[in-house]
Structure formats: C-alpha cells, structure tokens
Specification:
This protein is an alpha+beta fold and 393 residues long. Helices cover 45% and strands 10% of the residues. Strand 1, helix 1 and strand 2 form a beta-alpha-beta unit.
C-alpha cells in the first residue's frame, strides 16, 4: 500500500518490505516515490500526467541516487511536463503541440458539427500559423488575447468573438481530457458585442455585383450568381453536388443545412441557365480541382469588391437582399421563409409543428419571379410577365 511522508536519507535506509513491493511517496514532492521491494531493491520513480494519461518513469536506484539528487531529478521532470514535454522521452519531441490537440479535437468534439470545416478554417487562418508547434500547456492567456485582439483591431469584432468561442471550447475540452490543467480563456470575456446585420444591396449594387461575378475566375462567378438567384446559404451552394440536383430541384439533406432539416430549392429558368453552362468534372458542382468544393470565399469577396466597387457588405447579405426583394415582389412571408429554409419566424412554435405545407408551387413561382426581376435589372429593361416552366435538369 502506498505510503506518504517526507523522505529523508535516514528514512530511505530504514524502508523494508517483507513481501512484494511498496511505493513510499514524498509528500513534499508530488509524484516522487521510492519503490522498495522484498529483495531489498530501492528505486526512485515519478508519477505524472501527460497527454491525459497517468505515466511513471524511473530515475535511479537508491543509494546510488541520493535523496537530494532525486529531488533535483523530480524538479527537472516536473518542469518538462509543465513545458509540454514528456520527461520519459526528452529526445523524442514528446511535447503535445497545439496542432496535434487541434486535430484530435476536430475528430472527437467536432465530428457532428455541420460547420466544422468553417471552424477548422478559422483555426488554420488565425491560430495555427502562430501556435502549430507550440506545446499546448505553454499557451497562456496573453497568447490568446494577442490573436483575438489583433482580429478585433482590424474592425472584424464579430470574427474575433467567434474565434474566442472556438478557442474557449477547445481549451475546455482539453482540460476535460487532462491535456492541460487550466483553460487560459477562463474568465476572459469576448470582445465587443454582436452586431445585428441589416445590410441589403440596392438594385444598382446588385447589378454591379452580378456583373462582377461574370468577371470572376470560374467557378466562383457562377456560384455567386446562384447565391443571388436562390437565396441559399454560401456553403449550401459552394458544396453543392450534382447528385443533389434532379427534377428541377436542389434537394439538400438535413446534414447539409444549418437547422438540420431537409431543404428543397426549385430551380428557376435563370438558375438552370447558369447550371447548364457548367462542366461536370467531379461530384461537386463548383470545383476547381474536380475533387474538392470551392472554399476560397475570402479572396472571392475581395475580388467582388474590387470589380464591382460595392463595399460594406458580406456574402451572407445576399440572403437578406433576396428576402427583401421577394417581399417587394409581394411574396407572402411564409413562402419567403420556406425559400430561405427558415424554421423560426412565422413557422416557429405550434404553427411549425402542425403546418407542414411545403409551399413547393409557391416557392417555384416566387423564385421564377425573382430570377426574372434580377435579369431585368441586369439587362436594363422592365420585368415582364413570369411564366412557370416545367422540366428537369
């Protein structure tokens, strides 16, 4: 049975075991112990936690290693653990670095998160370039604030708040796994406050953005046009697969939507025209490699701003612009929300439970009217009458 008391040289000499072995722990040096066996062998050892696991290393035999020398060895090993290095393997690069923990966190904590790829891209943009090879235990509050404050100082406070949230969750998970002892962001509030977005592009701005999209490198231009024509979310279009398009519809499973519910988007004539011109070079509709969907939206937005001269807006504002445009075209609110895939608002609560009408016909008519309106703006003519068109893609 383990014994706990201060180990002096005299005490170490007196330790004897009649059967098996016993660990005598030094109460002044946590984890340090002298393992004594019935054979008379006495060896210094150290228990410590590393990477969430309890580990043990052996120093040397007593009295070859004196009590004082054992204390020195303990201090060196303890300091190694605090620095993120495994003292049992000092030359193996045994530190648990930030990148390794980040990848494990993505696999174990973010596997069911539909926006995990967005979270990962933020880590790779803001945190990994600075911390990739740093020991996880060596990242402190000041390191975190340096990154968060730098993002906020650029005027992107909302992004700073999101990065804070991502980092906080990672550190909480790491504490729970025994990888680190303390969350460096504990008691550190998020910067600023969330700003409610109200930006809607005017008809003139929408035309400029559409024409800028025509000059973008493919396939980003057509993808931006579909965002304008459908009001869908950026990733719903950016990660669109050909298998999700059939019978004149885009059909997204719950795993592909923000609210976890399946969503159907009727294809208007202008939308089909855009899709018909795209080459099929893989499973994804919008792909540069043929293997992966497009993802460089930051550069795309910057190019749109440069080419259009329109500023102060975000890609997501296109959804609000579509919603506002549909309302101007006298589209009922319930139909607009159905087009956007919203489950709040008029479809929330009891109504959402018992009102299961999918508004399929109304959605198709509304998107045809919206598509015709957008083209009339781009072509500089008055919108004409919209006719429903049947067919498949």
């Amino acid at each position: 049975m383990p014994k706990h008391k201060s180990i002096t040289d005299a005490a170490a000499k007196r330790f004897k075991v009649a059967k098996g072995q016993v660990d005598h722990f030094d109460s002044s040096f946590p984890g340090l112990h002298l393992r004594c066996s019935h054979t008379g062998r006495k060896a210094w050892g150290y228990y410590y936690r590393f990477g969430g696991r309890l580990k043990r290393m052996t120093f040397d035999l007593y009295p070859t290693m004196s009590v004082e020398a054992a204390h020195d060895a303990w201090r060196k090993a303890r300091d190694g653990v605090r620095a993120g290095r495994d003292p049992a393997h000092p030359d193996s690069g045994g530190a648990i670095d930030f990148n390794a923990v980040f990848e494990e966190w993505l696999k174990r904590d973010q596997a069911e998160n539909r926006t995990a790829h967005v979270t990962a891209s933020r880590f790779r943009e803001y945190a990994l370039p600075k911390w990739q090879h740093r020991p996880m235990s060596g990242i402190g509050k000041r390191d975190c604030l340096d990154i968060i404050d730098a993002i906020a100082d650029r005027g992107t406070v909302t992004m700073a708040r999101r990065v804070h949230s991502h980092l906080h969750r990672l550190f909480v998970w790491s504490v729970g796994r025994g990888i680190i002892e303390i969350n460096p962001l504990a008691n550190v509030g998020r910067p600023g406050s969330d700003t409610k977005r109200e930006r809607v592009l005017t008809d003139g701005e929408l035309v400029k953005v559409w024409r800028a999209a025509e000059r973008l490198r493919p396939p980003y231009g057509p993808a931006c046009k579909l965002l304008i024509l459908t009001g869908a979310r950026r990733d719903e279009i950016g990660r669109l697969r050909w298998s999700e398009i059939a019978d004149g519809l885009i059909t997204l499973e719950g795993a592909r939507t923000k609210n976890g519910e399946a969503h159907v988007i009727p294809l208007s004539v202008p939308t089909r025209t855009v899709l018909d011109k795209l080459p099929r070079i893989g499973e994804f509709v919008f792909t540069s490699s043929g293997h992966l969907p497009i993802s460089d939206w930051t550069r795309t937005k910057r190019d749109l701003d440069d080419l259009s001269g329109v500023s102060g807006w975000r890609i997501h504002d296109l959804r609000r612009t579509v919603a506002t445009g549909l309302q101007k075209l006298k589209t009922p609110l319930q139909v607009t929300e159905a087009i956007l895939g919203h489950t709040a608002g008029s479809r929330a609560g009891v109504i959402g439970i018992y009102q299961r009408h999918d508004y399929a016909d109304e959605k198709r008519a509304a998107l045809e009217a919206w598509g015709a309106h957008v083209l009339s703006l781009v072509e500089g003519r008055a919108p004409g009458r919209v006719f429903a068109v049947r067919g498949t893609l």
